[in-house]
Each structure stands twice: as C-alpha cells, then as structure tokens.
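Cross-posted from the bioinformatics board.
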Amino acid sequence: MSAKHAKQSFPVDQVRRYLEPGPVVLVSSFAGGRTNIMTMGWHSIVAFNPPLVGCVIAAGNHSYRMIRASGECVINLPTRALVDTVAKIGNVSGADVDKFAAFGLTPQPADQVKVPLIAECHASFECRLHDDAMVDKYNYFIFEVVAAHVAPVPAHPETLHYTGDGTFMVAGKTISRRALFTKVS
Ligand SMILES: Cc1cc2nc3c(=O)[nH]c(=O)nc-3n(C[C@H](O)[C@H](O)[C@H](O)COP(=O)(O)O)c2cc1C
C-alpha cells in the first residue's frame, strides 16, 4: 500500500465533509404570501422515475416551517459566480430577511408550484412533497421533481461542493469513460 493512502483516525461527526456529494443548492419556498431561500448540501437522489430527491431540512430553519406548510419547494443550482450569495443565504434566517431582495436575486414564476425559481441559477427543479414519513424523526423530506428548467450551456457548469469549515470545491475537469458503461439498468 502506498503511503499516499495511509489513513488516520477521524472524528465521526465530521465524515459528512467527505460524503456530502453536493452540488450545493439553493432551495426556494413560498408560504403565507412570503418567499424564502436556504442553502442546502444534504440531499441525494432516491429514485429516477418518478424522480425523487431526499434531503434534510433542519427543523430550526424557517424553510422547514414554510415547506411543511406548503408541501412545495424549488431546488435551484447555483454556480461559482454565486458563491458569496450561497454562503450568506446559509447564514441568515428568512424569518428576519427577504432573501430575494437582500441578495439581489430574481424570482421567476414556476409552471407547477407556487414557489418562484431563482433566475440567476443554472437550473431549477420544481418539487412537491412526496413522502414525509421520516420528517419527524430525521427532518428528512422526499420530494418529487415535477418540472425541470436547465440552461443548455455550459454543459458542465461550475457547481459548488461544500467540504465544511466555510470551504467549497468548484466542479471542473470532466473525464469520460462512456465505453465502460455496459450494464443496462
Ligand atoms: C454550504 C451550506 C450547506 C447547508 N446545508 C444545509 C442542509 O442541507 N440542510 C439544512 O437544514 N441546513 C443547511 N444549511 C444551513 C441553512 O442554509 C441555514 O440554516 C439557513 O440560515 C436556513 O435559512 P432559513 O432559516 O431561512 O430557512 C447549510 C448552510 C450552508 C452554508
């Protein structure tokens, strides 16, 4: 074994730094006549068809109350140009601040939900709550993506990936191994 991969003991409460796949997203919501946005890193694909996305929205967040009330959200994909906005939105509560106005973001009407898309993001996925069975225990919501809006260029946007401690990685180089993808699933 090469010294390069010699591992050391690591605090288990920090493993999320390595397992959070990103990309970091901005989750918009609408309830009681008001909009909100939160930053989110803890999400994963649960199923392809119908497209289901699972994610943790901590109960203390204003977004939690809004999304429980409406059963809807939009998952927006920010890129490198929005990194300061992503950090700031994740450090202020929508109970105190109108985040669209405060951060100069443009709300755009969605097709299927009442929640606005964020115009400045590369992609926006309209979501409806699909399953709340794990919300009380884990704050884990499962949403169905009911409409998707994606900018065609660039094909590989510079998405942000959170590694903890206020540090983000930016997606960059791509590698194709298409010839090895022979399993039909
Ligand atoms: C990079 C980053 C990732 C975050 N990921 C999550 C997450 O996945 N789930 C969560 O509940 N909070 C997450 N947060 C914290 C929320 O964005 C933060 O508590 C925010 O202020 C919530 O806003 P709200 O109270 O208006 O809903 C993250 C914050 C940052 C900066």
